[in-house]
Amino acid sequence: MWHPLKDIGFWRASRTRPTGLRRILPAIFGITVLLFGADRVAVAGPDIPPADLSGDPVGSEVLQKYLEAKGHTQDLRGASMEVEISANVPKLQENGKLRAFRVISRVGQVTYRVAAFQGPNFIKKEIIARYLQAEQQSQSQNKENIDITPQNYKFRYRGQRQTPGGTSAFVFQVQPRKKRVGLYKGELWLDSRLYLPVLEKGRFVKNPSIFFKKVDFERGFSIQDGLSVPSYITSTIDTRLVGKVQLNVSYSNFNHGEATQNTGDAVQTSSHQRSDEPVPNTL
Hints:
The chain has one domain. It is an alpha+beta fold. It has 3 helices and 11 strands, in the order H-H-E-E-E-H-E-E-E-E-E-E-E-E. It is globular and about 55 Å long. Helix 1 (about 20-35) runs parallel beside helix 3.
């Protein structure tokens, strides 16, 4: 069976697989697909008219401008960035970290040029490599089903707050209209000038597996060249078998143009700071 790291000699069969973690790996794979919502492309305007439940006219105006900005914003095709992916299973004392160069072609194909990896083979093969596979799978998902629009969510304006970077953001509480895998209950922060997302955080309302108790996440963005660019993703999956599984992704050195860097090994698979603290180094 082909594996995204096999062709460059980065992958080897894992001889040691903790039973509990092995049972939940397919579900973790599914969660990573949902976390790549950070790379959603803009979709057509919603059928449901935008409405802010707070009754504040400012909230209604901001929501309308967010949807307008969303409809006119291009996706990240042609962009490149550096990425660091770390995984940690505290109960099993297993962790690892991958550093790579990530390129999105003009047709949406994602390529990783691996720079370095540290950690045990199990984390490398069973968690981080699966994360790369998940990104490939996410390219073919129907993003409209999980997009943050009035079709899928109810919005309640909570006012303005200051981001860790010192800029102002409009904050909405979001509540899914349906209990569907991929939707979350939490907050959406919008840049006060361009009305683009700078932060999404909360808890998924429906777990994709009975092995999960809950899944909390946070996705941070920075505004660059008129785009909402992913800055980091942090997630904590509370499982019934092996306790917590932590997945963290950080992005840097974003460039919205065809990448010309040719260093490292290619692996084909398909900033805004954290609101509370920098992305932790779990290693």
